[in-house]
Design a protein that fits this description.
Layout (H helix, E strand, L loop, with lengths): L1 H29 L6 H13 L4 E8 L3 E7 L5 E7 L4 H11 L12 H21 L7 E5 L2 E5 L2 E2 L2 E2 L11 H18 L2 E2 L8 E4 L2 E4 L6 E2 L5 H18 L7 H9 L2
Antiparallel strand pairs: 1-2, 2-3, 3-5, 4-5, 6-7, 8-11, 9-10
Helix pairs in contact: 1-2, 3-4, 5-6, 5-7
The protein binds adenosine-5'-triphosphate and magnesium ion (MG).
Length: 258
């Protein structure tokens, strides 16, 4: 008898879970108009896998991607970055970054293939950065043009970008960021490639690097140029905040060890 009750309870739980999933799929359908068919299909796939349960509001609309807030069954929060089919301008830039990266030698040149490679590239870059001990959103999963990662923020409110809310102790944050650039270089073999106050979130006064689709491996022909540009941006921003920053050559030496 007890056994039977147990089994019933288990089944009930399972069913209610399934119901919840169906419900959040219906929620998704409401915003169906927003997504193309293949994106919608991928979102359903994530929901079915239980990676997230509900896709809530949009956090950011960009030229290339939109970022959404999502939660799973337990209320754990995620950021879901959905790449849109690209403008021709974006296509040109994308190609420059993917070309020359040995990890993406065999990417077809169709628009869809390029976008998928771009999302995958961001996932892989985040993974490498994460493993190298650089504070980035932990990558969770990628499929097609959709990337799921750790949500930086709380209760649906994302951490502010550094540009919007400068650090209280800029010197400390500068030192951490320079250390991250070095770790990226030394341990992840990567250059961020678009580092600036726009792509750093500040969470409890700690910097988190985001937006790594364009990050390149060190043997990319433009990696040193990108590193110089990243460092220039950092030095300029923190100099303006009154930090006694090193000159570019010195920062470059610190990062590369050369
Ligand atoms: N993991 C995350 N947690 C919280 N917020 C995030 C996360 N990832 C991105 N965001 C928010 O979404 C915005 C855009 O993200 P990101 O910079 O990765 O995309 P983008 O393609 O560069 O978009 P844009 O063209 O707007 O710069 C960020 O500025 C940040 O506000
Ligand atoms: Mg950005």
């Amino acid at each position: 008898m007890k056994d039977y009750e147990k089994r019933m309870r288990k089944l009930e739980k399972k069913l209610s879970r399934r119901e919840k999933r169906t419900k959040s799929m219906e929620d998704l359908k409401i915003s169906e108009g927003v997504f193309d068919r293949s994106t919608l299909f991928i979102l359903y796939w994530f929901v079915n896998k239980g990676i997230f349960e509900t896709l809530h509001g949009i956090i950011s609309t960009g030229k290339e991607a939109n970022v959404y807030w999502a939660t799973d069954e337990r209320g754990k929060e995620y950021a879901v970055k959905i790449y849109k089919s690209a403008t021709s301008e974006f296509k040109k830039t994308m190609w420059m970054y993917i070309y020359g990266d040995p990890r993406f030698k065999s990417v077809k040149k169709t628009m869809r293939a390029l976008i998928v490679a771009w999302a995958e590239k961001e996932y892989k870059n985040l993974r490498r950065a994460y493993e190298a001990g650089v504070r980035v959103p932990k990558p969770i999963a990628v499929r097609g043009n959709v990337l799921v990662m750790e949500f930086i923020g709380k209760d649906g409110v994302p951490a502010p970008i550094m540009r919007e809310s400068p650090p209280e102790n800029p010197e400390r944050v500068f030192n951490i960021l320079l250390e991250y650039v070095k770790r990226l270089y030394k341990f992840a073999n990567l250059v961020h490639g678009d580092l600036s106050e726009y792509n750093v979130l500040l969470w409890n006064e700690n910097p988190v690097l985001i937006d790594m689709a364009q990050s390149v491996v060190l043997n990319h022909p433009l990696s040193q140029e990108f590193l110089m540009r990243d460092l220039k941006n950092l030095l300029k921003y923190f100099k303006n905040l009154g930090v006694n920053v090193p000159v570019l050559e010195e920062a470059y030496k610190y990062v590369t060890g050369e």
